[in-house]
Design a protein that fits this description.
Layout lengths: L1 H17 L5 E6 L10 E6 L12 H17 L3 E2 L7 E24 L2 E25 L5 E9 L6 H16 L15
Parallel strand pairs: 2-3, 2-4
Antiparallel strand pairs: 1-6, 4-5, 5-6
Helix pairs in contact: 2-3
Organism: Nibrella viscosa
Pfam families: DUF4136
Keywords: Signal
């Protein structure tokens, strides 16, 4: 009986680990804005919102800015020369502590009848990270597009963080128009 309990506990622990929150990406935009008018950009870290010393720190800010730069260039946008950009891309990263709770409400044979067995509750504490990319019309300073991702980005090993942040930013920017001169009808 104890062996079954140990196996069940290991199974639930494995299940909790495999159910760790994946990176989720979402976006929103202003459908009234004609994106065809934009072709240049400037990238800035949102200094007021990058308060998290780890996820919002300089290393991760550089990772995010580099990934944004590569993504925008791949879509046909050009970096602004002399600060006169059509678009201002502001980003920030933050984190918060989360908890996942799971119960394995077991039913087992009880004197020939099925009845309540053991109920074991497992909890897992983790850090959820968020990257937010805001795109502004530089002339009006109105936000025209926003993309964000949530998940466990900072839990990776040092060598994997560059890849994790780059892939996350690329996932966010997949929802941005494919190239300068197209409008939101091209967004998939």
């Amino acid at each position: 009986m104890k062996l079954k309990g140990i196996i069940a506990s290991l199974f639930v622990a494995g299940l909790l680990a495999s159910c760790a929150p994946a990176v989720t990406v979402k976006y929103d935009y202003d459908p009234k804005v004609n994106v065809r008018q934009f072709s240049t950009y400037r990238i800035e870290a949102d200094r007021q919102r990058n308060a998290d010393p780890i996820v919002g720190g300089n290393l991760n800010q550089r990772r995010i800015a580099d990934a944004l730069d590569q993504s925008l260039k791949a879509r046909g946008y050009k970096p602004a020369q002399g600060g006169n950009a059509d678009l201002v891309i502001r980003f920030f990263a933050d984190s918060r502590d989360r908890q996942q709770i799971q119960s394995n409400n077991n039913w087992s044979p009880y004197w020939g009848w099925w009845g309540p067995g053991s109920n074991q509750v497992y909890s897992r504490n983790y850090e959820e990270n968020r990257i937010v990319v805001n795109v502004y019309d530089a002339r009006t300073n109105d936000i025209i597009w926003q993309g964000w991702a949530t998940g466990q980005l900072n839990q990776r090993k040092e060598r994997e963080r560059d890849t994790a942040f780059r892939e996350t930013v690329v996932s966010i920017m997949k929802n941005f128009p494919e190239s300068a001169g197209q409008d939101y009808g091209a967004v998939r």
